[in-house]
Amino acid sequence: MGRIGDEDPPAAPRSAALLRFLEMSEDFSERMNELRGGWPETMGITITRATADEVKGELTVGPQHLQPYGVVHGGVHCGLIETLASVGAALFALPRGQSVVGLENSTSFVRAVRAGAKLHAISTPITRGRTTQVWEATIFDEEDRIVATGRVRLLCLDPGRPLAGEQVRAPQHPGT
Amino acid sequence: MGRIGDEDPPAAPRSAALLRFLEMSEDFSERMNELRGGWPETMGITITRATADEVKGELTVGPQHLQPYGVVHGGVHCGLIETLASVGAALFALPRGQSVVGLENSTSFVRAVRAGAKLHAISTPITRGRTTQVWEATIFDEEDRIVATGRVRLLCLDPGRPLAGEQVRAPQHPGT
Amino acid sequence: MGRIGDEDPPAAPRSAALLRFLEMSEDFSERMNELRGGWPETMGITITRATADEVKGELTVGPQHLQPYGVVHGGVHCGLIETLASVGAALFALPRGQSVVGLENSTSFVRAVRAGAKLHAISTPITRGRTTQVWEATIFDEEDRIVATGRVRLLCLDPGRPLAGEQVRAPQHPGT
Amino acid sequence: MGRIGDEDPPAAPRSAALLRFLEMSEDFSERMNELRGGWPETMGITITRATADEVKGELTVGPQHLQPYGVVHGGVHCGLIETLASVGAALFALPRGQSVVGLENSTSFVRAVRAGAKLHAISTPITRGRTTQVWEATIFDEEDRIVATGRVRLLCLDPGRPLAGEQVRAPQHPGT
Fold first, then answer.
1. In the beta sheet, which residues pair with residue D57?
2. CB contact under 8 A, D108 and B151
3. From A65, A83, A107, residue closest to B38, measured CB to CB
4. I need a surface site. Which of A41, B147, C40, C104 has the fewest CB within 10 A?
5. pLDDT value for A175
6. pTM of the prediction?
7. Is the Cβ pair B126, D108 closer than 8 Å?
């Protein structure tokens, strides 16, 4: 029996020490916040923990997060979930020199939240294969009630694989 | 046989004339752009067509849409799909005095796009019931290649139903 | 702030004692197996725990579960997840006299399994509202490795609400 | 710009003639029904068209499809959608010697149907890459009303890639 699409022998890690280091859950959140990209920055998402085993983030709801009814837009929840899942998957794929790209995002909305709310979220892996990964993430309000939850399936791209016509320059990779 | 959760007799529309008017596909895109809310505005989403049968929108990719690899963040695609589906569902629900709220968003990412790309998207209904609606939406690049596609399930809320602790003030409703 | 679509005051339970009784996690699995319906029976699904807080089930993979490559068909995983989620949601909705119907099923496949494998699964609630519920469920193999995981969104139907043209006769309700 | 995960040069097809042949939409439905596997057979699914561009199937609802309320179980809809999508993706992947395996299934339920109903379904591709494919499928009743709709994401496995611990023996491949 084997994980779907992952039955070939695992790639030799670049460095067993690096692999072990990453698995020891070093927290790359500071580096991730520097590299987070325009969308997470525009959304005010702060990564508060970033390891290959667990990723956490938070944001305070402002006008830029709202839909016309005055509650947080569903795209913000989907995107926060996508952000945390991608950071975790990228950190797990890093020792192999792989980058990751999202394939599918499925998000359930549970609770409407308004401006001023402080949201925090956590993402953990369901499966971390050589070909694909699945991470789930859940967003909570200040009272730790679930606001939204979702899963992201990501494809792992081997080194040198072009993404959208250019080589991936891997800015998300903290060590390179 | 009946639509799931929708088997009770349809509510009398507020006005048969209004209902017919809306079904005639009047385009509310101008009004929708005024009311679109902070997230769609921050994302630069322009609604180019808004009827109860079809909604279209577009955006030009800028720095605020990108993730760390320099391609559009998945949350932008999920959110554009959510925006168009919500506008269509809201317009359909309007003659009953209902508002709508997203329950589920499931999006597939197909093609990575970079800054400068002009995206356009279209959303059409799968089912429009009295209790829930399902709309699908697809995003295309300038060459009409699919960039992402998704479905949104929405709950229809009867008039006066509070959303997140306050009465819905229905800014998305063009006629009020 | 409130749960989506659930902001009106909760319905008075038929009986506070019954409600409390159910919340005390009485196990209805035996009754559920009698009532499980043709599909779960054809699939050999046995419910091993059925409460409003947690549902468990199992099956042994046979020829009737396979797709052409000789591994379990994705529909079996989706359906096992749907079964457990529906049982839990129905038990939670029961004290209000409500029945439930699935709206959305989103399932990730993680590990291919072959004939002879014994699968077990558990489902727990994400949100249990008066209008909708979300349950997640995960399927494991004998070594407790994840085989598949998914979420189901269900609509709660008030008493007397017809489903598919007939009154719901509520065979899934253990007490009626 | 490129399709996600598919930017490397396409594999040389085994035979340009074979590829063209398949793209000409030869109908493999008869062969597919012989090879359909235990689950589709137990569910009484008949493939009525099977090409790399479009797949159709049908079933008549019987006791083996029902959940306790007497309507078709959600797992049947998910599984019918999975079946059609997988047949199409497998036929598309065949000229490369690839097999396919489902990664994600997201299905929306629209209309409850009872025993005796005749359902028909159609699946078409959203994207057909070298690494992954996405197919959507919709199920209709006799009056061509939508009963359910969904999308399936599939991973393409290169020749010789083991699936669940054994070599894929490719029974779904019509030409081998």
1. D47, D121
2. yes
3. A65
4. A41
5. 28
6. 0.88
7. yes
Q: What angle do CA C124, D105, D126 make, to 5 degrees?
A: 155
Identify the closest residue of chain A to D1 by CA–CA distance: A164
Distance from CA of D26 to the nearest CA of C (A): 20
Q: How many Å apart are CA D121 and CA D86, to the nearest integer?
A: 13
Kindly list the residues from chain B whose CB atom is less than 8 angstroms away from the CB atom of residue D110. 3-4, 126-127, 134
Cross-strand bridge partners of residue B58? B46, B120
Is D154's pLDDT higher than 90?
Answer: yes
Distance CA D105, CA D113 (A): 21
Question: C-contacting residues of D 116-175, CB under 8 Å?
Answer: 152, 163-166, 168-172
Q: Which residue has the higher pLDDT, B142 or D24?
A: B142
The catalytically annotated residue of C82, C104, C136, C142 is C82
Cβ–Cβ < 8 Å for A150, A81? yes
Question: Are the C-beta atoms of D104 and D152 separated by less than 8 Å?
Answer: yes
Per-residue pLDDT at B28 exceeds 70: yes
Digit-coded pLDDT (tens) for C128-144: 999 999 999 999 999 99
Find, among C48, C38, C51, C167, the residue nearest to C99 by Cα: C167
Could you tell me where the beta strands, DSSP code E, fall in A51-117? 55-60, 99-109, 111-112
Chains with ≥3 CB–CB distances under 8 Å to D? A, B, C
Which residues of D fall within a CB distance of 8 Å from A157? 5
More confident site: C89 or B34: C89
> How large is the ipTM?
0.85
pLDDT at residue number A22: 54
